[in-house]
C-alpha cells in the first residue's frame, strides 16, 4: 500500500490534487479543525481522509498548498505538530512565495526536525481526464516526483536547490497573472473613456490570441483578485524592492484589492470585466 500523504486546508487546488491522488490509490489525510464549511465540503468531495491533527504526522509527505499569505503560518503550525515525533513528514512547500520566503519557511521546518522540499505548481487544478498542472520540486525530491507521476499527476525535479522552484513560480505568475491584471486595468480605463469596443476590435485585428486569453482571464480573475494580491507582493519582493520594475507588482497588488473591494461592493468594475468578452 502506498504511504499516505497529508494536505491541510484544501482549497480548490489542494482538493483537486488530493482527489486525483485518491483516485489513483494514494491515501490523503487532512485535518479540518478550525476550517470552514467549504473546506470540509471540498475535502469530503475529494475523498480525503479526515483525521485529528496529530495523525497527520503519520504521513510520509506533507503538501503545503495554501494562499501565499498563509504559507508561513502553516509552516509554524506544522513545526508545533512535530514536537515529540521521531520521524515527521517531509514538508513540501508548493505555495506562490518568493525564494527568500521559501528560505524562511525552510528554517522553521528544519528547526522542528523535519526535512524541507521547495516546490511550486504551474497550471490549473486537475479536472476529469485532463493532465492538470505540473508540480516542480527541488532536485532532492526525486522520490516524491516519481510517486506523483505514478499516481496521476505531472511532476518534475528542478536543479538549483531551495529557491529555484519558488523563483520559477514567481516568474511564471508574474507573466501569466500580470498580463491578465494589466488587461483588466486597460479594459477598465478604455471603458471609462468610451473606447472599450474600439480596444476589443483593435486587439482582435492585431493580437487575436491575446484577445482570446483576455476573454477568459478578465471575468475569471474577479473571484481570485483578493487571493492574488499577496502573490503580487511576493513577486515584487522576488524582483527586489530596489528595482523600479518591482513597483509594477506592488501596484498590481493594490489593483487586485481594488477589484476585490469592487466585487464585494458596487460591482461596477466587475460588470465591465464580465462584459468584456461580449463587447
From TrEMBL:
<feature type="domain" description="Phosphogluconate dehydrogenase NAD-binding putative C-terminal">
    <location>
        <begin position="190"/>
        <end position="257"/>
    </location>
</feature>
<keyword id="KW-0560">Oxidoreductase</keyword>
<dbReference type="Pfam" id="PF09130">
    <property type="entry name" value="DUF1932"/>
</dbReference>
<dbReference type="Pfam" id="PF03446">
    <property type="entry name" value="NAD_binding_2"/>
</dbReference>
<feature type="domain" description="6-phosphogluconate dehydrogenase NADP-binding">
    <location>
        <begin position="10"/>
        <end position="123"/>
    </location>
</feature>
<dbReference type="InterPro" id="IPR006115">
    <property type="entry name" value="6PGDH_NADP-bd"/>
</dbReference>
<dbReference type="InterPro" id="IPR008927">
    <property type="entry name" value="6-PGluconate_DH-like_C_sf"/>
</dbReference>
<protein>
    <submittedName>
        <fullName>NAD(P)-dependent oxidoreductase</fullName>
    </submittedName>
</protein>
<dbReference type="InterPro" id="IPR013328">
    <property type="entry name" value="6PGD_dom2"/>
</dbReference>
<dbReference type="InterPro" id="IPR036291">
    <property type="entry name" value="NAD(P)-bd_dom_sf"/>
</dbReference>
<dbReference type="InterPro" id="IPR015814">
    <property type="entry name" value="Pgluconate_DH_NAD-bd_C"/>
</dbReference>
Amino acid at each position: 500500500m502506498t504511504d499516505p500523504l497529508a494536505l491541510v486546508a484544501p482549497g480548490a487546488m489542494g482538493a483537486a490534487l488530493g482527489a486525483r491522488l485518491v483516485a489513483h490509490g494514494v491515501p490523503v489525510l487532512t485535518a479540518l479543525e478550525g476550517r470552514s464549511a467549504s473546506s470540509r465540503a471540498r475535502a469530503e468531495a475529494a475523498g480525503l481522509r479526515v483525521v485529528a491533527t496529530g495523525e497527520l504526522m503519520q504521513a510520509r509527505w506533507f503538501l503545503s498548498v495554501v494562499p501565499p499569505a498563509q504559507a508561513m503560518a502553516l509552516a509554524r503550525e506544522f513545526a508545533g505538530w512535530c514536537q515529540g515525533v521521531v520521524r515527521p513528514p517531509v514538508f513540501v512547500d508548493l505555495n506562490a512565495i518568493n525564494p527568500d520566503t521559501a528560505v524562511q519557511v525552510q528554517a522553521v521546518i528544519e528547526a522542528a526536525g523535519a526535512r524541507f522540499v521547495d516546490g511550486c505548481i504551474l497550471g490549473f487544478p486537475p479536472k476529469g481526464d485532463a493532465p492538470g498542472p505540473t508540480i516542480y520540486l527541488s532536485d532532492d525530491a526525486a522520490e516524491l516526483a516519481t510517486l506523483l507521476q505514478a499516481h496521476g499527476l505531472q511532476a518534475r525535479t528542478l536543479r538549483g536547490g531551495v529557491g529555484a522552484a519558488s523563483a520559477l513560480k514567481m516568474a511564471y505568475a508574474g507573466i501569466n497573472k500580470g498580463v491578465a491584471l494589466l488587461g483588466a486595468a486597460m479594459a477598465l480605463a478604455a471603458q471609462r473613456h468610451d473606447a472599450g469596443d474600439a480596444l476589443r476590435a483593435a486587439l482582435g485585428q492585431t493580437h487575436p490570441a491575446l484577445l482570446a486569453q483576455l476573454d477568459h482571464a478578465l471575468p475569471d480573475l474577479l473571484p481570485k483578485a483578493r487571493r492574488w494580491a499577496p502573490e503580487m507582493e511576493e513577486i515584487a519582493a522576488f524582483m527586489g524592492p530596489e528595482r523600479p520594475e518591482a513597483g509594477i507588482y506592488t501596484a498590481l497588488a493594490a489593483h487586485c484589492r481594488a477589484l476585490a473591494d469592487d466585487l464585494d461592493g458596487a460591482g461596477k468594475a466587475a460588470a465591465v470585466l464580465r462584459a468584456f468578452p461580449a463587447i
